[in-house]
Structures are given as C-alpha cells and as structure tokens.
Amino acid sequence: MARLRRVLDRAKALDMAPIVNYFYQNGIHRIQEECVGTAIDNATQWLLERGYDGLIIDLVNECGSEAYWPSLRLDAVHEMVYRVKDNVDLYNTRTRNERTFYVGTSLLPRWSVAPRIAELPARYIQAVDLLMPHGNGLSTEQIREAITAMRARIAQVARQPMPIVYNEDIQATPDDPDATDNGGDLAHFDVCLEMDVSWGNLIRSHQQVPCEDWVEGSEVQRAWFGKTSALAGTPKPPHSVLKLYYRI
Description:
Number of strands: 5
Structural class: mainly alpha
Largest sheet: 3 strands, parallel
Oligomer: single chain
Strand order of the largest sheet: 1-2-3
Distance between the termini: 12 Å
C-alpha cells in the first residue's frame, strides 16, 4: 500500500486521474468469497481517508472471467459497484466532504466486441460510471464497431451518456509475438481519438517489477509518448514521469 500511495500522490501532483484496480483474476485466490465485500469496504475507506478524489476505480479487471467469485462476475458485479458508491456517499455524509470516485469494471476482449456488447446486462450499464473495454488482439475495425455498439447500448439502457476508456490493449508484434515489450496497435489509438474515446497502451515490460523499460523505453512506448505529447502540446513527457521508476 505504501507503493500505491507514492504513485497516487505523484499522480495527484501531476494533475493525473489514476485508474485503481481492486481485483485481478490471477490473485483472486488470495481472498475468500465471503470476504469480498469487506475487502471492497476497506480499500475504498483507505483511499477516502487519505484524501484522494476523482479516481477511476476499475473494481474488477476483466470481470467476464470465470476465475472470479460469482459476486465479481459480469452478471452480479453491479451490486459491488454500488457498494463502492455507497461507501463514498456515507463517507461524504459523515465528513461533509464531496469526494467522487468514478466506478466501473474492465471487460475481457471477448466482451469488447460489438455482438457481445449488445448483450451487456442493463443493470451493469446502469450501475457503472464508465465502460472500460479491452482491445487485446482485436482489429482496428473491431474497435470501431465496438465503440459504436457501446454507445448504442448506453443510449438504450442508461439515463445519460458515459465515457469509454480502453485501459488495456496489447497486440503481438508481427516479427516477434513473444516479445516482452510488445504493446497495443497504435492504429487503435487513432480510431479512439477520432471517435472521442480514451485509449491506454499497455506495454508488457511494465508488468514486471521493477518496470524494466520505463525510462529508456521500447519503440512502441516512444511512439505512444510521441502521440500523447503532440496532443498535450509539449515536446516530451514531463521529466518527473520519466524518472518515476527510480522512486517506486
């Protein structure tokens, strides 16, 4: 938690909106099913009591996975989304604060294609504050079709429009599909920009601890920084971002 706090504090100083994930399928075995609700309460209180605001909560990474306990799967996770929101509301009432967390769950790539998006449960769409599809292994045209389908499904069952954030997108590089630093197809980035959707490139080397290529970077990372820097109007990423690796 100390490392998480350093990351969140630095993001706050840089005026960034971090995405905080609560549950990951490869670690779910560490928590018993009956403890899921308490874990959500504890994590949310920890964030609130330390003054964080405006966070995006990815409550369950790829909630369509059968690896999770039933309460964290797609057909039931809306109850846990409301649990996070109830915690925030109760905290605000008790402390007279006005903190806001934007709560959702990310979706498996197989749930991030147009035909499956049309089947997303209405209660799920109505509970979350944003949709977080994953573009792993999908074509550019599938990304375009998925965004159109998400907006149609939102309009069908929700009371208002909501943001769409691709917070994971890994593509195997044609020359070496097993490379550790292969990342998202930057053509997906272009489609998302064109359609007013957020897109985040996930580089596999960043999943290692420590993040091996954070400073010097890979070709994919440099291309991503180039595009985002051009959008932000700065010649290169802030020095503090490039050096973040050394402080974590």
